[in-house]
Queue: 4 jobs
Job 1
Amino acid sequence: MTNNFCVNLTHSTDDADRATVGMVVANAAVASGKNTMVFLSSEGVRLAVKGVAAQIAEEGFQPMATLVQNFVAAGGVLWVCSPCFKKRSYTDSDLIEGATIVGGAKLVEFLSQDAASVSY
């Protein structure tokens, strides 16, 4: 059975419901002992920008800022799509702690190691 798990998260403030559910799933995966990576792409990269997660709080769920903090604290890996981040004119100084800018090759490498993947 594979131990690698990827959540491809393509939403943030544009669809707070999907973004929140994606981070809930990521937290469940890392809590169950999976080597869990969240790949933030498209609008999802905004979750790696300081202050953005604090703007998202869906009823019935923990606030996004808490979900992100708990995920990283539990050992989850937060990768941010480099071209998506740059397209939105962000710089490294905008990044939250625990987030890393990566290219698509890094995602492909992770997925090729028998990773299960879901997308939100």
Job 2
Amino acid sequence: MIPRIPSQARPLLRRVAGKAGDLGLPLFAVGGCVRDWLLGRPTLDVDLVVEGDPGPLAEWAAGAFGARAESFGQFGTWRLLKAGWRLDFARARREEYPKPAALPLVAPAPIAEDLLRRDFTINALALPLGPRNEGELLDPAAGLADLRGRVLRALHAESFRDDPTRVFRAARFVSRLKLKPAPGLWTMARESLRQGCPGLLSRARLLHELWRILEEKDPERPLKILARLGYLDVVYQGLKPPPAALHAPGERLGAMALRLGPRGKDCLASLPLDKSLALELRETLEVACHRRSPRRALPRPSLAILRTAFPRLPRAALRPLFIDGEDLRALGMAPGKAFGEALDDAARAQWRGLIRSRAEALRWLKNRL
């Protein structure tokens, strides 16, 4: 069984392989892209590993393809993004975990050792891209047999202790690729949880793995697996999957927080979200928890979350409040405590469907005063 590189990828990878040969760098496509090619799933996300410094090759590729090369992380990884493509360049390495859930200590190593440091056997695959050995699949962990048997298997018994984020990836792979967990896989996950390993993960790493699941076409199954294993509670106690009607990851996260009720704000505050997204989701929860129309226009994702959570809500309820402070002043009301109370009462009335237009809002205000 030989991986079939998608036709649109071949010219690009051939050029990169030629330059790697000029630089004397053995080059390999590794991990998920090789797995997907074996499954006949085209992918434009390609992980490339060299036995040596990947920097010169990545910088050459950036110039050759008109892309920008970005170096990031402590592991010397380079990334190129170009017209839907993502090429990651990394050095073949070995890893040692000094303690559970810690980032590993790394050192250069041959490709065979690099493959055996990975998460699952189906990802411990490499395809040499040099002209002499192209097509010779490297498979030191019998990942091809597991792929044929549709089995997800960890590489060793301490895998989830070393890196508990692998449990999130396991739930994602089992669901997306329609795999069955190897015997004992979920037992390993529960043992890692029992030992407290997932609780040692940074919030940033937890958010990264959760977000990857929320990006899936159907995140419900992996999230249910994580809930059953107790790993969603590691993100936040009581977290549940979002409604199926939502599609964007930010919307799904907001709906999950909303299902927590008032605790949803604490859940969002515990995650290192992008500032604009965090503000948007906090405002959404504010509207929902206090059951009152917003003072300003809500962005489309917020409206999607609220309409899904409250399907019978009157259409006017989520429009910006029909009256403001100028209307109160025009009726002779002085700014003060009663000022804010009047606007809050109007927002609640609009939420309940008692106010459906600006004219109705002005009549409601005159009657109130």
Job 3
Amino acid sequence: MKQLKTKIISIIEAMPETYLVWLEAPEIVPMISGPGQFIMVSCGDDAFLPRPLSVHRVDGGQVALLFKVVGKGTGWLSQRKKGETLDIFGPLGNGFTLNPDSQNILLVGGGIGIAPLCFLADYALGEGKMVTVIQGARSGDCLLPITCSQKLFDKGVLPSSLHVINATEDGSEGFKGLATALIKHYVNTADQVFACGPMAMYKTMAQIPELKGKDVQLSLEIMMGCGTGVCYGCTIKTKSGLKQVCKDGPVFGMGEVQL
């Protein structure tokens, strides 16, 4: 973990009320052990606590964070400009575990939960895996375009290795309904399943018979205080006792979490 001031390379509104910011962070990139970790970002004088943001993508010495405006802190962050600096520290947490023997993986993202899954998709594609992404959102304008990056294409990764299925609650794009309704149609060929989204999505997943016996890993979205396990503000109940999302997670096995 490292604390530093980092320069904003770019910041755009990628979707309504959802922003993509690229940071110059060559000191942090080598410390990122894999997809699923997060970075704590200080969000102005009016926001006492830093905000945990998943690593969305990595490119050279740059890190991308994707976040939704949900309050004063993220509202302040959305108003930053190119060239300004942010106080950050990280990387933190334990991320997803990709089995070297897995050939086909299924990713399920609900809303802003797609943020860490894009990094996981890039990583898995680079390892020669076939990746299927089910992305759910309220409407079509809230869906993030997910493509095979030019960097991966240049390395010989075929675009056909990535299959993206969209689900919208209003039916404006893709399947009309929740992303979880599509899981049963794609899970049989998946060696592992990775998900990030609201707790309601996880509760639904826990009731899907086709997921029984599968390696299903969930990234928990929860408010954090310190991000390092000191304040115990993100403590949850698991089947093996109390654990801290920031220190023991944010990724847990679905069978471990009490849903």
Job 4
Amino acid sequence: MDTGMALDLGRQALMTALIIAMPMLCVGLVVGVLISIMQAVTQVQEMTLTFVPKIIAMILAAAFFMPWILNRMMNFAAEMFSPMVVP
């Protein structure tokens, strides 16, 4: 394995990790913005009001997207453990 292959492997691993994490992060972002808007409108500044709904929403998103996440991870692992074709 040369340097180029190692860099490509690292890039592919990071991209897979970002793609796998994206659904939960997007759900957390949307819920956080909605709760911030609600807090600004009602002027309720409770600290736990921001964390608990985001955690619950992210857990539900993880459960909902779990089949897709596992599929992506298994495809990545199969690709990593397949025999490499070296020119």
